[in-house]
Amino acid sequence: MTLSTVWLLAAQLASATTPAGSADTILVPPARAPASQTAVARRDQQAFDGSRFDSLTANALRALFDDAAAAGLPVRPLVNRALEGAARRTTSERILRVVREHALALRDAKQALGDRSSDDELEAGAIALRAGLDRRALEMVRSSRARSPVVVPLVVLTDLVRRGVPAATAQEAVATLGRAPRADDTLLGLQATVAKNAQRGPGMAVDALNRYVKAVVVTAPEAAASTSSDRKPVRPPTP
Fold first, then answer.
1. Mean pLDDT, to the nearest integer, of 156-184?
2. Nearest to 205 by CA among 152, 154, 159, 148
3. pTM of the entire structure?
4. Do 68 and 93 meet the contact criterion of CB atoms below 8 Å apart?
5. Cα angle for residues 206, 151, 127 (degrees, 5° grid)
6. Are 188 and 156 in contact (CB under 8 A)?
7. Which of these, 39, 117, 166, 212, could form a disulfide with 121 (CB 3.0-4.6 Å)?
């Protein structure tokens, strides 16, 4: 299982953003970053094409990127969302709102997952939060994985919830399987199983989840994991 495969799903999860009509209540701290920190933002903004926005929007976005860099947050996910909005001809107001909201989600993810979390982990955590999970869910995932990366369990957890599995049930399953041998492969096997059965309704998805977890915990965890070693994450349904 490669990280690029996991982020294929993460990018798909990220495409579901806040409805355009929602209130813009998310604020990024206004403090400007010192020169040593803004250099980080400038490096990550190399792919940011300000000419695709009006000057006021481009300047506002650069300020948000600088604020994120000053807080030690990854900037590239914010740049990507801004550029995606421009490609879709989204209004400037909505683009700024989405970038602000994601910056706040990244900040909350960092508080829940810890200062030593990788950029990929923070991005997966931010997507999970914006999908409706809370910080306690992220903290649970981190505690269940010891020092192992949490990108896969966060992506799988987000997908399970979006497919109709109750958050508490999904969290318990991910925490349990996160301690199993070959945990990432086992979790991806769970994701594929739930995705297949979710087409028949949320109840069938939960039943399939419970059977899969029981098979891993009670019978042969290695066998269950080996069946999913080459699986690719399944694209979640559009909310």
1. 92
2. 159
3. 0.73
4. no
5. 75
6. yes
7. 117
pLDDT digits over 46-58, tens only?
478 899 999 999 9
pLDDT > 90? residue 20 = no
Tens of pLDDT, residue by residue over 183-233, are 899 999 999 999 999 988 889 999 999 999 999 887 644 444 444 444 555
As a whole number of angstroms, the distance between CA 151 and CA 68 comes to 21
CA 170 and chain centroid, separation: 15
| Cα 108 to Cα 100: distance, rounded to the nearest angstrom | 12
CA distances from 94 to 86, 107, 148 (A): 10, 20, 36
Which residue type is seen at 86?
Answer: A
Count CB neighbours of 179 within 10 A: 14
pLDDT above 70 (res 36) = no
Cα 50 to Cα 82: distance, rounded to the nearest angstrom: 10
Does position 87 have pLDDT exceeding 90, yes or no? yes
Token pair of 167 as six digits:
């958050």
Burial call 57-77: b when 16+ CB within 10 Å, e when fewer = bbebbbebbbbbbbbebbbbb
* Sign of the CA dihedral with 57 first, then 63, 64, and 65 last: positive
